[in-house]
Design goal:
The complex is a heterodimer of chains A (about 90) and B (about 475). In chain A, about 35% of the residues lie in helices and about 5% in strands. Chain A is mostly helical and about 90 residues long. Chain A is flat, with a radius of gyration of 23 Å. In chain B, strand 2, helix 3 and strand 3 form a beta-alpha-beta unit. In chain B, helix 2 (about 20-40) packs across helix 4, helix 8 (about 295-310) packs across helix 10 and helix 8 (about 295-310) packs across helix 11. In chain B, strands 1-3-2-4-6-5-10-11-9-7-8 form an eleven-stranded mixed beta sheet, with helices on both faces. Chain B has about 475 residues and is α/β, with parallel strands linked by helices. Classes of the chains: A mainly alpha (about 90), B alpha/beta (about 475). At the A-B interface, helix 2 and helix 3 of A face helix 8, helix 9, helix 10, helix 11 and helix 12 of B.
Chain lengths: ~90, ~475
Amino acid sequence: MSIRESRFDVKRLASLVKLRLSPEEEKLFSVQLSRILEFFNRLDKAQVDDVEPTFHPLEIYNVFREDIVSPYPSDKLLSLPSRVKERYIWAPRM
Amino acid sequence: MKETYTLKLIQEIESGSLPLDEYLARKAEAIAKLEPILNSFITVVKGFEKSRIERLGLLKGLTVAIKDNICMEGIETTCGSLILRGYKPSYDATVVERIKKNSGVITGKTNMDEFAMGSTTEWSAFGPTRNPWDPCRVPGGSSGGSAAAVASGESDLALGSDTGGSIRCPASFCGVVGLKPTYGLVSRYGLIAYANSLEQIGPIARDVYGCALLLTAIAGYDPRDSTSIDRSYTDYRYALIEGLEGFRLGVVRELLGEGVDQRVSSCIEESIYRFESLGATVEEVSIPSISFALPAYYIIAMAEASSNLARYDGVRYGMSLSARDYDWSRYYEDVRSRGFGLEVKRRIILGAYVLSAGYYDRYYIKALKVRTLIKKGFMEVFKRFDALIGPSMPILPFRIGEKIEDPLELYMCDIDTVPVNLAGLPAISIPCGLVDDLPVGLQIIGSYFCEDTILRIAYNLEAALDLRLKPVFSEVCV
């Protein structure tokens, strides 16, 4: 795949991950990210047709713990947000 | 046992010839003197030098610096990012809990590339850390603050985290010892996630003994991290046995290939002769799938990062904006755009891309299949070898600003470290020489949970080389 083909819509992608790029960032990223994707395309040469993917380095299955409620001091957590009113955390308007 | 820096320090503290309060005061002085030059810390714990320890546990009151992506109750933990500025965790990470329990004295939170994304510590929102060997040069990253703090003597031990080499790279560039444990050996509870399936917390120390000591303190099953492994744990100091007779070491051809500085290769070759003189047999070995490790690693790491960093919304902790008439979408965009730096934005965007419909199989799943090949490749050679060796970094520490403009060139520097993370194996970086007064690190890779083997090999090389490294900027106690 050529750089031209792999160039993608940086602005749209950024908006999907809730980032607003400055015009300079947009310009910089459209070149840099295309180059990085070109580098990712080296994997095209890997022979992996019958290979299973490894999502995790160790084979760990069904890790359970006892279903016991352990209390957590919620005051500590409520001290973290910048705006709290009557134990509610302020959030932007939906 | 050979008398190394950490062992001697412990003996002096235990015997009373170096009273603990005097030792801690010296450390506070070292930090005050060196920080204006090195910038190893984002936060120094106020009054750490006044710590009083009733009963000396395993760590004997030694100072430990903690990478700033590991939570410590009540102490600002930023991950090197503006988006977490002001965040004071409400709990200790398991490793911090264990260090305190074992009477380690925590000096502070160390500088790092933002969210551990980088190999130079230049991507910190709090300015770069400088290499104690030459302050014009990078200390490596992303745990550059931890490695610089140990190399300079600001702290005697430190914790780093290693997602693609972030312990081994700065250990190599700063001339200290750094160990990335087997995935699952050390609890990640309280480690702020970047790429969960790749990262591990590990020790950095001036010598192999210090590394073994701190690993002993932090390793072990933790029910709060469901990926930590429930098995019997050992005191790694007992692995430091003299002699390597009968050890079979493999030199991985792909780790010494194109792009490795000839001066680095020469240092590695010198170490190979040392291993042979210590009784080990050394042979060249090839793992061809390693040639795909870098793109596979970056695809997986960025994919996991884009998912993990979705949580930063400026509402519940860290950075927030004051205007009250925001709609939610614009608020999140504003917080994230102001709070994240360039490299983090790059990785979040690319991570979202490789996970998106139409590209998921082509990039993400393919990278995971390559991961399988790399893991199998390692398992195959571990049938014939006790450990594998190669350089930790292909090049010497370079100048601050030299590579920052070209992300791809920086990614290439991780060529020797990322295969280990893809497979989940343990590896240690140990200084093996100096080139133009800059340290070179040798990497020793072990099979799963064979930290004792790689520590023993490193311990023997350390003793044989007897380098006694001391950087230009250092305030070493003993």
